[in-house]
Amino acid sequence: MTSISLRSTDPTRSRVDVIVIAVARSGKRLAALAPGDQVAAAFGRRFVPTLSTLGFEGKAGEIARLPSAGVVKSPLVIAVGVGDESSVTTESLRRAAGVGVRAIHNAASAAFALPTADGADVQAVCEGILLGGYEFTDYRSDDDEDDDISTVVVLTDLARTATAQQAVATATTVAEAVNRTRDWVNIPARDLTPASFADAVAALELPDRTKLTVWDDTRLEKEECGGILGVGQGSDNPPRLVRLAYKPKKPTMHLALVGKGITYDSGGLSLKTHAGLMAMKCDMAGAAAAMCATLAIASLELPIQVTCLAAMAENMVSGGSTRPGDVLTIRGGTTVEVHNTDAEGRLVLADALVVASEAKPDLIVDVATLTGPCIVALGKRTAGVMSNDDALRDAIPAAALRAGEPMWPLPIAEEMKAKVHSSTIADLRQHNPDPVGGALFAAAFLREFVGAHRWAHLDIAGPAFNDGDPFGYTPKGGTGSAVRTLIRLAQEFADES
Ligand code: BES
Ligand code: ZN
Ligand code: MN
Fold first, then answer.
1. CB under 8 Å to 80, separation ≥6 — which residues?
2. Is the beta carbon of 459 within 6 A of some atom in ligand 1?
């Protein structure tokens, strides 16, 4: 990843290959935002008419490239639209930085002259640059690193303040976590199996005060994790439960993060259609997000104890696969009648939620690409938040908004409980008897495994993987959804205490 430095230089005098500025709409007019207004001033009265001639309207996400022909020191200016001046937020700046960095090609150095009123803005601009600059090239035969921008400078009046320096460091840790999540999601399922995921975590330079434990299939038998084993039994790649525990010196609270880690979801015997299969390497995005957020929380040395559990299995078709009609026994003894082997996520999460509960945390948050119905409800960019605590269900989307991630509360409708308890032969029924309310039924099922713990469930089936074009700082493929929200939650818990 590129490293960012701060400078308080006048943007017109910055000797870089490209300078990025923000242009807003102010009424019907265009206005370059400080400190980029100095660049606009150097162009003089020609600036706004030239942008208009280029068709630039200042809309969010729009760009215009202006060769400077010596008017400023940098030979190229990239103007990024941020929409109406009155509605520019910290998240607009993060997106503008992402759009700007994606518009840069074949440059060795770049400067970002975007408005930064405080440390949060500096952090957002840095995050936008580091997240927008992400590319997954591991599988390209012509992968050369030369295309990377080697020097990135953020121009801000706050450059010499400790707050701004801290903001760069935090942004770097956060972006590293998000980009590592994206990498793990983007690696094809052939190369990222439950065992190789565990190996990849073990190969990292783990932060201080963390401890990694991996339960392999033999251990999972001993620990009676029938959900993870039941889902994994159809695959040649055996399942794993990966635990990363972070214990700071004086923790003010204990948070458990649980992630769905299906390295490939074929649907099992309830096989998916071809269209449904294509992106299913993304089905471990929850586990990757939980793990990378935990690593970041430990790197930031937040005073929050974290127990992270990644429930890893591959959902495949073979003579050994779990069948619709089979009964599995989850850790702790609850029996579950399987109705649809494509509703596998809740089965692996059930075991992991029981293990998380055994650690007696103050709060459990699970993250999962759990249901297509959640995408139907909220679209491709918004995660669903469900909980056994109404205040928490509303607090998480609010924290997510502050982190710049769209999330929205969904209820666990009352009638779901009876449906979950409607198996004729086992304690619970795994799959919704009705074709409606699938995201809610799944949450009601998960709730059975957390006992009296405060718990929230983030369904990231929509936002975890972008099969459309890049936008803002979001690339194609793995997005790293939920990582920033989880880190932000831990930071806010730490600030409260
Ligand atoms: N992994 C899928 C959910 C999913 C779908 C994630 C699309 C990302 C994109 C999950 O295991 C699944 O197959 N869910 C079923 C619902 C279930 C109730 C059978 C689905 O989406 O149809
Ligand atoms: Zn799945
Ligand atoms: Mn599935």
1. 20, 21, 22, 23, 62, 63, 96, 99, 100, 103, 114
2. no
